Amino acid sequence: MVKAFRVHEHGGPEVLRWEEVEIEEPGQGEIRMRNTAIGVNFLDVYMRKGVYPTPLPFTPGTRTSTAKTITVRNQFDQTAHLTRVVLCCSAGVESVGVVTAVGPEVTGIVVGDVVGLAGSPMVTGRTYAEEQIIPAAVAIPIPDWMDHKVAASVLVKGITARILVRQAFKVEAGQTVLVHAAAGGVGSLVCQWASALGATVIGAVSSRAKAEQAAANGCHHVVVYTEEEEDFVARVRDGITAGCGVDVVYDAVGKDTSRGSIACLANRGCLVAFGEASGAPEPFVLGELQPRSLSVTCPALPGYTGTREALLESAAEVFAGLASGVLRAHVGGVYPLAEAPRAHADLEGRRTSGSIVLVPGE
């Protein structure tokens, strides 16, 4: 038996229950790993709250597929329902640990290896637990020089950042980018990466305290968009860019910022929407994008890391960025695994910056 968090009903952080669960021996093509550090992501919160329907009970980190329908309207007021498959837990699975057992037909991995898990669509493990079983095909070898907490803080977030700046919208020197939540786990890495690529980076944050962290992440300009501070649209479009707008907006906030993000775009600009921290964006008229030839994309890890080759290539580029100093991990909080509810409350309350990590046994 091992200890793990289980969710028996959707709700606030208090529905996370610390329980004993059974763990099996690894089957064919599987490994068992003892978690040493676990990354916390907003998708874990979405699952706990029931934003992405998940059969109950479940352990955060357990893969579940569901479909989500997004409604948009065109300029003729015709409604379209776009259904996408959401792997509820795939982007929320992030952990590092030591291999304790290897199942039949597993090659290249032995007991004692340090491996990581980074939001694979094939995963069936449970990260909010002392130990878990995962397919060997999704295990990422962790370099010897990397601290386990740092690795757990950048696997999903670093690979996501790579997708955002290198694939979903390829950032180039001379471009101007706007990054929401610029002091957060993914936002910090996006700012660093885009700045290293030669872009002018505008970071938007929710407090003056986070503005300093955003500047340290490579932001050339920082906007504080709390209601008592600044109107980020006016500051970005009319002020910083002198009416020109930005080439791309990376938006993980959702409802509170999506309209403003579109308003900030330059002609042929792109909104990269990859999160809904404030809720799902309201439906919009597709014709609104046409006058300025704008585009919107919604990238997710499964679409870019669906093969082992793609997963390892993404991880290798993140590790290389950390080794060279282009990327700098910011572990903003370390919590004992048993205090995961407190970590969730702090994350939702915007009381964290950078990445937060859970550590079993502390």
From TrEMBL:
Keywords: NADP, Oxidoreductase
SMART domains, alphabetized: PKS_ER
GO molecular function, one term: zinc ion binding
GO cellular component: cytosol
Domain Enoyl reductase (ER): 11-358
Keyword Lipid metabolism tagged: no
InterPro entries in UniProt: ADH-like_C, ER, GroES-like_sf, NAD(P)-bd_dom_sf, QOR-like, Quin_OxRdtase/zeta-crystal_CS
Subunit description: Homodimer.
PANTHER family attached to this UniProt entry: OS10G0561100 PROTEIN, QUINONE OXIDOREDUCTASE PIG3-RELATED
Stated name of the protein: Probable quinone oxidoreductase
Organism: Digitaria exilis
